[in-house]
Amino acid sequence: MRWWRPFTASVRDKVESGPVSGAARVALTYLSVSALYIYFSDRALRFFIREPDLLTAAQTYKGIAFVLISSLLIYLVVRKSDRENVRLLGDLDAKVKERTARLEEAMLLAESSDKAKSEFIANMSHELKTPLNAIIGFSEAMLSGIYGPINERHREHLGDILLSGERLLSLINDVLDLAKLESGSAPLDLRGFSLRELIRASGGLFREKMVAHAITMDYKIDDGLDEVVADQKKIKQVMINLLSNAIKFSPDGGKISVTARRLKDLIEVIVADTGIGMEEDDIPKLFQPFSRLEPSLQKRFGGAGFGLFLAKRLVEMHGGVISAKGKKGEGTAFTFSIPIRGDV
Ligand SMILES: Nc1ncnc2c1ncn2[C@@H]1O[C@H](COP(=O)(O)OP(=O)(O)OP(=O)(O)O)[C@@H](O)[C@H]1O
Ligand SMILES: [Mg+2]
Prior knowledge:
Number of domains: 2
CATH topology of the largest domain: Heat Shock Protein 90
Bound molecules: adenosine-5'-triphosphate, magnesium ion
Shape: elongated
Structural class: alpha+beta
Number of strands: 7
Strand content: 5-15%
Largest sheet: 5 strands, mixed
Number of helices: 10
């Protein structure tokens, strides 16, 4: 490598060879050139000038010349590096602008395709729900006998049609809810409400089913939960999904307990049942979409495996967490907590 190379190397070269080694090479080259210059120029002066006064004056001028030349060199090196920095910054700026523009384009494309997907799902759901409501409505009407008497076989098959229609409707509603969450068209609607009333009202929705299966529900709700701030509709959906599971997976005579309490800066709700429980290894699978632990029970219980997935998303939207604990044959407890918010 040529001795002047460190002075003229581009900033890119210096960066590539490492800033420390670049600086060290400049300093070393400068040191050796200066030492050689001082040594040989001094010897030359002594050789040519014998007169001591003249020699002293010549050495002074030589020193001044050295400082001038060094300053000029430093000026040239710094100027070159400044220019290069400006050029590199310009390049960098242009690249950043170009990439930002490309990113914006990609985001717009993703947003519009996401919106199109959600719109498609919403339209599709609507189209599916209209005939489904007719199927449910007419099978209910025929079962009630308003179109005339029906025999036992008809009753059985109409019952199947009604049950399947209701299950399909509930799945379509879940998919629609999820599409709304994904597309951001169902943002958090934070208001004050009574969690005590919400829990009791959610439990009330299952009264008939609980009476039919002799299932009891017991509430332990802390004082101070009469005014909480959250998205009432979404929390109700979480409660309904957890309670419907607790009832669905409990044998006749089962016991469900709902506990709600205020912890330091959290509200915690636990829904525990004395139902079929689950293997510990299966717990992580619960919150995945379409996960049903025991397909053999599916025929009996129905359900698409969407409820817990949706509940998790809704709790997480509040900045909360949901978890499950259970033991095969001994029941399950789901706990979710959301942060306490001030007035909105
Ligand atoms: N309380 C519970 N006790 C025992 N197993 C449960 C309980 N809750 C959920 N599970 C298991 O977790 C699976 C997933 O529950 P999830 O609520 O997501 O779906 P689902 O109830 O089967 O259907 P969907 O809620 O969509 O109608 C259930 O199929 C069941 O195997
Ligand atoms: Mg469910």
